Amino acid sequence: MKEALILICFNTIFYILFFIFSFLGIPLLSLFGAFQYIFISHRNAMKKFRRAISWYGLVIVKILPYPFVMVRYEDLDKTKIGGPFIFACNHRSASDPFLMACLPYEFVQVVNIWPFKLPVLGFMAKWAGYLSVREMPFESFSKKAAVLLNDGVSIVAFPEGTRSADGSLGQFHGSIFRVALQTGYPVVPVCITGNEKIPARGTLLLRPGTIKIHKLSPITYDEFRGFTPYKLKNMVRQLIADEIEVMEGKGNA
Amino acid sequence: MTEQEIIKLTNQVFVDSFEIEKELLKEEMNIFQDLGLDSLDIVDLVVALQEKFGVKIRNDERIKGIRTLGDIYKFIISLKAEVASAAPNSRK
Known about the structure:
Chain A is α/β, with parallel strands linked by helices and about 250 residues long. Chain A is about 45% helix and about 15% strand. Chain A is built from eight helices and seven strands. In chain B, helix 1 packs across helix 2 and helix 1 crosses helix 3. In chain B, about 60% of the residues lie in helices and about 0% in strands.
């Protein structure tokens, strides 16, 4: 009973703050973005706008649910090579796109059709140049992704395409890996665990817990040159699966 | 071309195009869920099968119903049979 009450209080407070912050924060961010255009170049304005979106995400995932939800981000990159990168991440929860704010890079996300239809967030995603992969043929997607990467903007994708119903790692779609093969930019596997119920699929109820995010070392073009897209996507999938096992205490560190 | 030869060549396409190990290629395997092919991989697969068997399958409606490796074997076998039966007629 006590636990249920705490859960209700936590969720009520979180969602009230979420809506207040979103409906105040997003218009302010948009004004901030528009204001930048007067003084700085389009490229710099976009850079600041995307960074502002990451700040918004960080507040949503790190501050508002604290201390019920804790986020632990670890960069396990041993190479320390420079970006931009193509990030490929597993997908278990609706909180995943928000958690990407922990990545300290300028990036856009590859999204499905529905996030663009969200009232305020969709507008912000469109403006930031997020890529709606199912609303364009692969050639257009590839061209737009290449322009962004050449401009120094990383791309975050969830190659499973949809949230896993049972927590298992689904099969990967190859579009983003074809972009990697065409452009030669490094692919970085990112693994998230602990947010299966923050919130669970089909509900908005947030359960308390600790979310772990591990960013692995980049796989450089020299390592995957000559691969088929199928081989590359399965290689990345296997790296993510292995790391998830370690994170969940089922594998060897 | 015998059915066994068609199965062997089809498996070879999967090995060459996707680097899938031969041991994984079983008739009952779902090409999407078990082998992990996506829509773009299917385009590559169709092109590779066309080249390997010298047939046109890109606009064949039957490929939409293909789910398993066994479905592909059956499809190619029936396609080769159609080509073989049409060949004498075309000579007339």
